[in-house]
Write a structure and sequence with these properties.
Chain lengths: 280, 274
Amino acid sequence: MPRDSRRLTGPEECFSPYDFCCSAEKKPGVAISDCMEVDNARTDGRISSQLRPVFLRAGVVSQARGSAYIELNQTKVICSVYGPREVLRREDFSLKGQLTCDFKFLTFSCKQRRMHQQDEHEKDMAVRILEAMESSVCLHKYPKSQINIYVMVLQNDGSALSAAILASCVALASAGIEMYDLVLASSVAICGTQMLTDPTAQEEDAILDSSEKVESAGITTMAFLPSVNQVSAVSFDGQVSLDTLKQSQQVCIENCQKIYQVVRQCLVTYAMEKRKLKGR
Amino acid sequence: MAEEIRIVQPKEYYKRFLEKDVRPDNRELAEFRPVVLNIGCVTTAEGSALIKIGNTTVICGVKAELAKPDADQPKDGFIVPNVELPPLCSSNFRPGPPGEQAQVLSQTMADVIADSQCLLSESLCICPGKLVWVLHIDLVCLDYDGNVMDACMVALVSALRNTVLPKVTVDEETGDIQTDPTTRVPLQVTCCPVATTFIVFDNKLLLVDPTREEESMATGAVTIVTEGDNLCSIYKPGGTPLTENQIDNCIERAFTHGREVCRLIEDTLLSVDR
């Protein structure tokens, strides 16, 4: 890899200290069974269909047109929206507005350190967020201009994609960008016959790179437009039967509807605060 | 009406306020913005801190890794601070590699760590010539409303003070590395350097803790880094020349501010339990 001349760099070869733990606790929770305790309780004490508490706030970045911060226990995501602003390159000109998305895990946000440059996984996440949002934003109202969404994960403890989509949606709405509907998102991890709502990083890792081959395992994330009752994006990793997938989608939609109230409340609070400031 | 003047004639707008010794955000010329400090907010990092100075927000995370030391300095660990100014924090920044300002900030952080000796690279040695710690200190600006230098410095020191490393041992004979994640050792951070930034407005007035708007109108700036009763560095990147008196005045105020910030960090650290 070429050395980065614009950053301070350490030695070329670094390794995580946690790779050298005693074998018993080497990779905590890789076995799926480790994620489940007796009586179907999960390691964080939730039951399988329980969401983590959602903390959501709009208007956190003063310089941005719109912004949002979301916390699902230890998953923390910040998002800001700039625009509509002019398109920089002339060849990109179009009568329909353009939506762009930039997604980054901060270097210290995961268990293993991440690089400064955007990697393939992050680019893929950006595209997934974009696909979820694009169908909801009224792009024809913003000719010749672009709207930029920037998402950063401060800490990843699972369900980063759905947290990012929720944050983008609130940021876009607080920026006053015209949208057909809010975009809600939720994740479900499938493990055999179990459906784990809103999986943590430990559960995600266990399912995606599990050593013991399970019949069906995977993670479904769905973006849902609640008032028009349509699905804007589905992404799925893993291998399950079609029926299970359909079932998991149903669970996702139900969870989205639970989050709907939180998102609405957050936007109402933001609008009230803004009006109060203006009135002063 | 006032908002229109602010956009069209920002300098005139500011002058009218400053004539009456007050700033548009209701501060006096020598008044700092309120500071909120949250230490230990990211649990995936070995140490972390988030600071808000007014609207300006900076998050700092320390990630520790292991590496083989350089052959000519077998006892020295690596301290790698980097400041990111991502497009998320302001419309002035574009995606891509760090710009000039971010590079200057990164280098300043590295220089202050080296000059103040708040963290000695020898203290990061595990086994001389074989294994040392690498501390990747990443500072990310989340909201750019001026005075990022001061914010970065507080975040950096707080995160370092918060950092605990798992105990790592190297077997003398086999060279095997063994990590004990249950035993945690805090870093030996010996002192607490604090930066204080002043800007010069209209070639004469000194404003402390500038906002983004004030920074963009400044005719000069000076950053003073203090550490307890010692002066650590003075950074004055060109601009309006200052008299000796003015510099002395700045240094004096920087010392007072430095002590206040140190106390804030200490108090916040006490309220954090790991």
